[in-house]
Amino acid sequence: MLGTDPDLERAKAIGVSLFAGEAEGRLQQVLQDAAAGQLEPLYDFTDDLPALEGTPIPLLPGKTVQRAVGGSTSFDAGRGCPYQCSFCTIINVQGRKSRRRSPADIEKIVRVNYAQGLRSFFITDDNFARNKDWEPILDRLIHLREVESRPDRRVSPSRPMTRVRAGGSVPG
Questions:
Q1: CB-CB contact of 89 with 83 (8 Å)
Q2: Nearest-CA neighbor of 116 among 166, 170, 65, 159?
Q3: Which residue in 3, 25, 54, 164 is a FRET match for 12, CA 20 to 30 A apart?
Q4: Based on the structure, what is the number of domains in the chain?
Q5: pTM of the model
Q6: At what angle do helices 103-115 and 134-146 cross, to 10 degrees?
Q7: Which residues, at least 6 apart from 90, have a Cβ–Cβ distance to it below 8 Å?
């Protein structure tokens, strides 16, 4: 799927190995090849997008996050979009296949980070409005905030009251 680019070709010619695509489930092979001194010139996974549900959670030590960004952490709830909007580059980066974390995955990410003292979350999603689980995800975040007193949830779905209850703001 990768086109020919003169700069990339020059990089490969001098021994630089290139990795295209997403690393979940693939990085181990690259590291093993590197340790064995047998790196391939190109690892191209652009046509094989990994599922996100059930994958290991993105986690940095709380102290590191506190030092770097003041206690605010981020994670992706979903990647990819099936549409081809003329103004959007998502499909070029994340593909046309929508992939998402389950509501349980998102709750686990929030709980594990909260246990480390992190209280603010920046959640990204290439097309949250089309995520079939958007309501259960927000219900869990609302429960964590309102019932279990987990502050500082910032989400921006298209439903204003849910957005306010989950900790976001409604544009004036």
A1: no
A2: 65
A3: 25
A4: 2
A5: 0.69
A6: 30
A7: 80, 81, 126, 127
